[in-house]
Amino acid sequence: MSEWSEQALQTNREMLSAWQLERLCAMLSEVLPRNRFYRRKLGSMVRPRSLAELYAWPFTTKQELLADQQQHPPYGSNLTYPVSRYVRVHQTSGSTAQPLRWLDTPENWEWLMHCWRWIYRIVGLRAVDRLFFPFSFGPFLGFWAAWDAAARSGWFVLPGGGMSSVARLRTIVEHRITVLFCTPTYALHLLEVAQREGISLNDSAVRFLIVAGEPGGSVPHLRNRIEQGWRARVFDHTGMTEIGALGIECPENPGGVHLLETECLAEVIDPETGQHVPAGVEGELVLTNLGRWGSPLIRYRTGDRVVVDPQPCPCGRVWLRLRGGILGRLDDLIVVRGAKIYPSALDEVLRRFPELVEYRVTWRNDRGTESFVIEVEPSTPDLAQGPAAQRWAERISQEIKSVFLVRPTIQVVSPGALPRYELKARRWRTQT
Ligand SMILES: [Zn+2]
Questions:
Q1: Ligand 1 center to residue 4 CA distance, Å?
Q2: pLDDT reading at 361 higher than 70
Q3: Which of 192, 103, 118, 102 is nearest to 153 (CA)?
Q4: Rounded average pLDDT over 7-30
Q5: What is the model's pLDDT at position 94?
Q6: How far apart are CA 9 and CA 408, in angstroms?
Q7: CATH class of residue range 1-329
Q8: How many angstroms separate the alpha carbon of residue 63 from the centre of ligand 1?
Q9: Could you write out the three-class secondary structure of 312-351?
């Protein structure tokens, strides 16, 4: 980045666009002659002379990638180099479809390290910070690159796989951990366990939680509970196995995620027409990554619902700011008796009840007869029985009706009755 100043790439849109176009062209001249998937798809396209020209090219979809991997097992044909050049493989968590496998070369991995170094600079990590990853690392990308980037840059890093939540809490206190990486749900769960087990977090040194994997990091009620419980700042992070770690919440303007636009091209489209929508209007996020040349994605429809904040950000960065982070997934939409409900929107409403610790939704459509049941778990047993439980259920039911215009059946369950999640939470069961 020698002739490009990092400062200018964050604050000058014209310079940023020139940088993006230069990197895009460099990537395309490496990828297009070698990569079978993109040669088939874009073979007739020439190098774009402007970003606007690229925006007329076809999208890449997840269905396409999955079909390609089935046709060319096990890794598909979106590979710029021979398989022997690749040193890492990850896969998506498969919450909506069969898992997608993703190979990386050492250079790809370096680029992911580079993205995380950006994130650490933006968040303001200091040399004395001590990082803890309280979950078991799996085959998906989630925080692997965060870990590796931190370890290589000389931070103290501690893996928390195979430990109970109690053991993790003691680890946080004893090792004077300052930064936690987890899902928002698990950050809340640790607070709940600390309270139950009488582990005081007053002495904890945690000052940041970098959360990802679910939309909760930018849901106001949820993040407030995490920040108050931990007495620490939450940073929402967005990333995907197949595209990389490309978003981090603005340190000066909470409640919105900046995209690392030096490392990607971002578009927001109307999912029906494929046309760009203006800032302030909800649409689907489309990304092109600029540094993962071994397994690139060009105009990838992420399936994530986002709104770009039309206001300039007080931090001075011109990078797109996604208001409220990732709002949810397009394919999560459930239509209950004609009302459209996104799980993340329902989550936001349920989190308005601070005494609710966990919930589970079951939606069934049995030959046209729909049932919509929400099991809710209170923090204290007195809310779980008798008239108090009935009143609480009624308040929750009313609140949901006022927002979505449909009334669910609310079932209050005893504290501890519902499952807890260390990784991506699975709170919805749908049966048709
Ligand atoms: Zn900002």
A1: 20
A2: yes
A3: 118
A4: 96
A5: 59
A6: 49
A7: alpha beta
A8: 33
A9: CCCCCCCCCEEECCCCEEHHHCEEECCEEECHHHHHHHHC
Structure tokens at 224: 């407030």
How far apart are the CA of 184 and the centre of ligand 1, in A? 21
Quick one: average pLDDT of 35-53?
Answer: 90
Q: Quick one: CA dihedral 101, 107, 110, 115, positive or negative?
A: negative
CA 16 to ligand 1 centroid distance, Å: 16
- Residue among 9, 36, 27, 88 nearest 296 (CA): 27
Query: How much is the pTM?
Result: 0.84
Tell me what the pLDDT averaged over the chain comes to.
92
Distance 93 CA to ligand 1 centre (A): 30
Q: How far is the CA of 313 from the centre of ligand 1 (A)?
A: 5
- The crossing angle, in degrees rounded to 10, of helices 106-123 and 144-152 is 80
Q: How far is the CA of 324 from the centre of ligand 1 (A)?
A: 13
Hey, what CATH class is 333-431 in?
alpha beta
What pLDDT, in 10s, does the model give residues 236-288? 999 999 999 999 999 999 999 999 999 999 999 999 899 999 999 999 999 99
Query: Are 108 and 31 spatial neighbours (Cβ–Cβ below 8 Å)?
Result: no
CA distance 86 to 104: 5
The residue ranges of every structural domain in the chain are 1-329, 333-431
- Residue 257 CA to residue 287 CA, distance in Å, equals 15
Taken in order 249, 254, 255, 258, the sign of the CA dihedral is negative
**Long-range Cβ contact pairs of 16-24 (< 8 A, separation 24 or more):** 16/261, 16/262, 16/318, 16/319, 17/51, 19/262, 20/51, 20/261, 20/262, 20/265, 20/290, 21/48, 21/50, 21/51, 23/290, 23/291, 24/48, 24/51, 24/54, 24/265, 24/288, 24/290
What is the tally of helices (H) and strands (E) in the chain? 12, 20
336 Cα to the center of ligand 1, angstroms: 37
Is a pLDDT exceeding 90 seen at residue 367?
no
Give the closest residue to 344 by CA, choosing from 374, 324, 364, 358. Answer: 324
Q: What is the pLDDT of residues 300-345, one digit of tens each?
A: 999 999 999 999 999 999 999 999 999 888 877 787 877 888 887 8
84-128 pLDDT, tens digit per residue, is: 999 999 998 755 557 899 999 999 999 999 999 999 999 999 999
Rounded distance from Cα 233 to ligand 1 centre (Å): 15
Paired tokens of 431: 């049966």
Instruction: Give pLDDT, residue 186.
Output: 93
End-to-end, the C-alpha distance of the chain in Å comes to 53
Question: How buried is 29 (Cβ within 10 angstroms: 0-12 exposed, 13-18 middle, 19+ buried)?
Answer: exposed
